[in-house]
Amino acid sequence: MKSENAAQRIIQFAFIALAGGAWYWATAAGKISPLFLPRPESVWNAFNRLLTLGQFWPPVRITLLTIAQAYAIAALCGILAGYLVTRSKFATEAVEPIIAGLFTIPITLFFPMFILFFGIGTGSKIAYGAVYGFFPIALSAIAGLGHVDERYLRAAQTMGASRLETFRHVLLPYAFPVILTGLRIGFFICFASVLGGETLSSVSGVGRNIALAAELMEPARMYAWIAFVILTAVSLNMLVTALENHAARRAGRS
Amino acid sequence: MTDVSQSPSAAAAPAITIRGVTQRFGDAGSSQSVLALDNVSLEVARGEFVCLLGPSGCGKSTLLNIVGGLIRPSQGEVTVSGRRVDGAPRPDEIAFVFQESTLFPWYTVIENFRIALKFQRVPKAEWDDRAMAALRAVGMAGFSGHYPNQLSVGMRQRVNMARGICVKTGILLMDEPFAALDEQTRMVLGEDLSILLAETGKTIVFVTHSLAEAVFLSDRIVVMTARPGSIKTIIDVGEPHPRSPDFMLEPRFGELRNELYALLRDEIRKTMASQRDPAAARGGA
To answer: Domain A38-252: what homologous superfamily?
Structure first.
């Protein structure tokens, strides 16, 4: 088990090393035009220039704030919707397919409408990310909150728990491992939607800077931004996985 | 019979009054309809321990759930401390201990107590004292930081029972709380329960299949008929609490047990006959 684990790690690191090596080799040998893929050191220099010129943190701040707001709305509305829908079996069976159906629509198609309604500022990206992130969270909340063991609900009822207390102390902890899956998917959808929205139409943020660098034919700067986004996504993913493992350990006690 | 509705505060008023309770599941005309309880009336005095004993499916648990307000009876009424129970639980008066442990697995033992006391609106300052006292009473004080699934089934049910006892209610309804346990553990828990009850003075209605358990624990044993459940007879045990295990060795214990068995045997045979020929059992009387 332990040696298997180590072997898996080696494969994962080998993949990263191989990808980096391929990048280095292809650009050094001049096989690829630096316009498509600049050399690693020029990307590194571009990144340092962004930092020294003070052009790095302001867009990062805007993008992270936009994601945070979009995600907060998606998570709260998704869990609330899941709670309300699962209050009756009838509503669950009626509404769940509707939400699942809506989730299959590429909401990207409506992106121009978001710009029209919420403007070109962060508002449209918040709304777009929140709407996209809402669906997986609502679906997992319905799945989790709709199948809570009757025993615990009856026990809470006979002990005099209020609705809010029942939600906070019985429904939510019981359903949390299931909801967490939706929260995770919802988060990355939010993340991708906000950045995607920024590249499509925006005045600020990381996505806007990526699009701008591409338009200005500055691939090194564009890749510097993209590398930053990838690193952020990877570290957030690791954080969420750690949280999930923690929750799974707690749930495993049941 | 005392009219409790006129003097709800009188100390002599029974803790629980069941009047003409009938319970039918499904619509009366339909072939799926089952008459579970047929015109059951019973009074339980304050501080009394009453066992409901009867064959499987005789409606013992249904009656308990009606008293606890989890089911609204088709006919008849239940009053608890002079107030009518109308299909809504009364957490201020009645606590439940169910057959399976209902400890929340995501909380530790002590957290389970705190949450129960919080639900019951007990002041926060009292939580830990009450919890630890109840845990000590069932010999589980050393396990307050454990999660329920780190405990054996027997330990879990002790904690579950302690949680039911530690809350403020005067009435405890227990639905076969020892059914999932092996016989030795049942015996020990039964002794614990007898001691606890003598201390707390709670009114208890206890559903069981076990004849020995019924005789050992009860002040009165309500023997029920096969479905549709009604009261066949009530037996007085007449032995003060707390009871020592020696009570089980006395001739009286065996006599009562045999008497109960004789009473139940016919009902069990009836139940088995109706299971062989379900048409005869349907709809009841």
So the answer is: MetI-like (1.10.3720.10)
